[in-house]
Amino acid sequence: MPAPSDKQAERKRKLTAFLRAEALAQGFDLCRVTLPDAIPRAPERLAEFIAAGRHGSMSWMEETQARRGDPRVLWSDVRSIVMFGLNYGPDEDPRGILSKTDRAAISVYARNRDYHDVIKGRLKEVATRFAARAGEDVKVFVDTAPVMEKPLAEAAGLGWQGKHTNLVSRSHGSWLFLGSLFTTADLEIDEAERDHCGSCRACLDACPTNAFPAPYKIDARRCISYLTIEHKGPIDPALRPLIGNRIYGCDDCLAACPWNKFAASAAEMKLQAREDLKEPSIAFLLTLNDAAFRSFFSGSPVKRIGRDRFVRNVLIAAGNSGREDLIDPCLRLMEDGSPVVRGMAVWALGRLMRPEQFRQLAVSRNQDEPEVEAEWQRAECGA
After folding, report:
1. Closest CA to 234 of 319, 165, 323
2. CA 377/CA 149 separation, integer angstroms
3. Alpha-carbon gap, residue 239 to 365, rounded angstroms
4. Which positions ≥6 away from 380 have C-beta within 8 Å?
5. Is residue 143 flagged as an active site residue?
6. Is the separation of the CB atoms in 19 and 11 below 8 Å?
7. What distances in angstroms separate CA 330 from CA 87, 287, 325, 358, 359, one per listed residue?
8. Picking from 134-138, 180-184, 228-232, 379-383, which range would have the lowest pLDDT averaged per residue?
9. Residue 355: pLDDT above 90?
10. To pair with 260 at 20 to 30 A between CA atoms, which of 89, 129, 229, 266?
11. pTM higher than 0.85 for the full model?
12. Which domains does the chain have, with CATH numbers?
């Protein structure tokens, strides 16, 4: 008769095998397991990041710091953490669009349905079947919860946090969506992945705004993904020219990773890009009112930032384009209801119009809100 310890080991093995099979059936590419105490340095590193102010205006990171730094604070009963990876590798290098001045660059991950919804739905399917089989409690999390997914994924062996602070996989490069399942079940634990970056600094050198003060450290306040998605209000004028035509996120550091050569493009059942989001026209995007914005980006994560913040980003791309054919769409936005949109229209026109044209426009303007007036003053000074 098997000893109790043998029975426990066999139960662990069977439950872990069942979990991996369910993950594969739901289209996940990777599924590995770690312990809730596997990231002991994470709280210290998170505290350092926040203390330095590198989280920018993401106050939620500070508010959830304790839960984010230790999974057991989030759920005291958790015994195993299962990390899932879903490949979203693009068909080609997404940086090719950066030279097309009439087109807008949307980050690869946002060119289809909101991945939060896609992954959470699949995780719930896995969790439901696993809970029924194991008779244990489960919770699933995708990005929006206070879970440090990247350190946990490294501890579970999905990959390692590269110098750009994102997860890098030997099989999928830098193109992985992550999700997690917390459970009260005891499972077989996988080995952590070690760092394979070596002396490479391709991701650091690729950053347009120099957002990495050092390898493995990021300052969100200079990151285009943060600026175009999380940041509200006007964007630092010094950084605007560096944004180019990136209107939602930035793939440069991810796309530069040499490990991407091992990553195939995402399969059909996963996340294929919408054709109309691969290279949308800047001129078209400048015409979107709130209703048109919501309709065009229905189901997309882009919709979450709202129309005004989005058009702010598009106006920056217009100002960086050097294209006179975008002057008229920008002029129409001078009458927009949003101060942040009007302000960015001023900035864009200051870069697109000839100096004498812009001076005439400035003379004829009406007094506006302080943030818009500040844009006029900067533009008139050539800033």
Report:
1. 319
2. 44
3. 26
4. 350, 359, 362
5. yes
6. no
7. 38, 9, 10, 12, 16
8. 379-383
9. yes
10. 229
11. yes
12. 4-89+106-183 (3.40.109), 280-383 (no CATH)
